[in-house]
Structure formats: C-alpha cells, structure tokens
Fold this protein.
Amino acid sequence: MPIASANGIDLCYDTIGDPADEPLLLVMGFTAQLTAWDDGFCRFLAEGGRYVIRFDNRDCGLSTHLDGVTVDLPAVLKAWEAGEPPPPVPYTLSDFSDDAFGLLDHLGIERAHIVGASMGGMIVQTMAIEHPERVRSMTSIMSTTGELDYYKWDPETRAALSTPPPTDRAGYVEHSTRLGALLAPHRHFDPAAAAERAGAAYDRAFYPEGAIRQTAAIRGSGHRADGLRQLRVPTLVIHGMADSLILPLGGQRTAELVDGANLLLVKDMGHDLPEPLWPFLTGVILAHTAHGIG
C-alpha cells in the first residue's frame, strides 16, 4: 500500500474508485486499521460515484508508530472526569485532523466529503470545526461530542475494550471475537466472520501500544460542543440503537448541536457496520454527500 508523508509522519493509505469522482475520506476509530472499512463497504461507495480514500491513523496499522512515547493516562482520565485541564499528551484530535488534511494535500485534494466512525467521528468533527472550508460534507458515525454528560457506555463493554489483548494470535482472535459480540449485540453479528477479520488485522499490524496514546488523545482534547454549535457544514449523524460502547445519546447530542444536521438511528446496529446493512448505510451516505457536489 502507498505511504504519504503528511504532518510530519507517514500515513499508510489506499484508494478505491475513479479519481475523477467526488473524493470521500473515510476515517476509522480507536486502534482500528483502514481495513476496518471493509472492501465491500468501500465498493458500494465507489460504485455510487465516490473516490474513496481510507488510511491508518497514526499509532495504528502501517502508519507511523510513536514507539516509546509515554503518557500519564490515569492523570489524563482523572482530569477529563473532573472537567479540568489535562496534563500534556503526545497528540490530540487536532493532530489526527491535521494528519487527514495532510493526506488530502498529498493527493492534491482541496475539499472532500469526510466520514468518520467512533474516534474517527471525533476526528471528522474536529476537521469540520477547524477547517470547514475544506469539507464538502461530514458524516459522524457511532460517535459523540466529547462532553462528559453525553459520553455514556455499558460498563461491561467498556471494561472489555480497556482490557489489553493477548499478544499471541489465537488469544487475540478469541479476545477480539468476544469483544465484537459485546459491541454488536444484534442478529447480524457473525462470530466466524469476526474471527476472520481479527486474524487478518493481527497479521497485518498488531500494535497494542498505540491504544494508550490514542485514548489520551481522545480524553485530552476536550469537548467539541462550542465548535459544533457554530458548524455550517452539511452533517449526517448515524448511530446504532444497540451501541453499548457509545450509547445513542452521543449521536443524538451531536445532531442536536449542529444546525440542520440529520440524525439516523439504526436498529440492529451496535458499535459496528453490519454487512447486511451496507447497501442501506452506503446509500444514505451517498445521498447525503450529494449535498456538496457542484
């Protein structure tokens, strides 16, 4: 896969579709590699006339790893819960945002539709707030605003996500499949497919160290409520009604803050993008991104 030097780091990325079509940047979430945007999901978007770009965030996948960079995560979490200024963190959501714009610069793209999932939703919100002139439309999926009162989760799911995964392949696959069942508590969850995806992710790039720094970036960046209130970018918010990691309250709050935002609450969707819903979800995204064409 190609590598782009952007914002002082290297980003691994790939593209699907015709470069002459409308650019659509996909931003994935916490510790998730670009392959978490499944090829089939991306093909639906490309066949709908979008030039799809996906990439590994820093500290994940085949992009730059900040090996050995330390952070006092308990202190960051304590400050976030108390509503106090955090101690220094290695990077913030704004740095993730600058990475993404750096990739677009590398590709010669001035303005793009941006779609983010989970932490990726936080990143695209930050992109739209900080550089709205470069955003044709924004779609925030299974995410939230960073406000403590609207960032709620099921304790069991949160504990499972916070547990470091085993370092051996078999243990990692078992752990990830068990976590996937908590993240996707609906009839579409396929344990065999989840295990296959986990194995492929492990083989491509197993890097658990990045999780601590990415967590610090989320908690150390503050909330986006004020910026979202001022946002005038066409906005779509999608949230699964069965999401136990970021409860639907997070998506509802995001849509409430952004003037003119559309909110889609989806049954049989948790903190995931179920394959049977790809035609529906991508169809909605394609319709929404038609706002910025022309």
Remarks:
- The beta strands are 3-6, 9-16, 22-27, 50-55, 112-117, 135-141, 235-240, 262-266.
